[in-house]
């Protein structure tokens, strides 16, 4: 079989056998199509170290025709990680090709971890106008992000019936289908309670939009804020405050993790609360 057919088989394997998220499959499709465009529809036995080296040079020298910008080192590594996963799949089904262990990743450019100091964090949490319904919602969003360390995609998926303010905890299914329990602070409970207190709808989503046409169908699913909408909400307040740090919902996740470690939490507990599969991902917070 040729490369194009095997790439399609690999993507179907990820979906059916590995229960991989559609976003990850979409990304792998993009990364591997770039490799296919570079090599042509070759036999997988023709993939060798020399070809991979030329492909890495191609990625390193590639520039966008519109922006004239190249690929960041970390992005180049994403392409190589996808290739390595594909080669691992070929080995699994006994297709002769390059050993995945021979595909090395380049050194990433050092990126400083973005966190907010105590003053900035307090300013951001206090920024929404809680006298307005969208401001009250935004305050609840910010408090929940900092209290739980949720990813923005996880926050956007929350439903009203998941939240138990008396127990101050709830379960979620995060990245890679991993289940975990997250905990709400007193402040997060207070603002979520106030936000839910002004909700006189029966919509299922926890965080809903207040602009555009109201659509009650399917329990108000179309009213749900998207991850991008939540990112824009945070961005709006960060810009208004004039922070030097370009803070995002993920910055609040970083701040959540560093705050736990500074206050004595052990790294394994932080790993579980963040939903990290690998402890090395959590260890970046010990260097802040």
Automatic annotation (TrEMBL):
InterPro entries associated with the record: CB, DNA_brk_join_enz, Integrase-like_cat_sf, Integrase_catalytic, Integrase_recombinase_N, Integrase_SAM-like_N, Tyrosine_recombinase_XerCD
Superkingdom field: Bacteria
UniProt similarity note: Belongs to the 'phage' integrase family.
Domain Core-binding (CB) as annotated: residue spans: 1-91
Pfam families the record matches: Phage_int_SAM_1 (PF02899), Phage_integrase (PF00589)
The entry's keywords: DNA integration, DNA recombination, DNA-binding
UniProt signal peptide: none
Organism of provenance: Candidatus Daviesbacteria bacterium RIFCSPHIGHO2_02_FULL_39_12
Gene Ontology biological process terms from the UniProt entry: DNA integration; DNA recombination
Domain Tyr recombinase: 111-288
Coiled-coil annotated residue ranges, if any: none
Protein name (database record): Tyrosine recombinase XerC
Gene Ontology MF, one: DNA binding
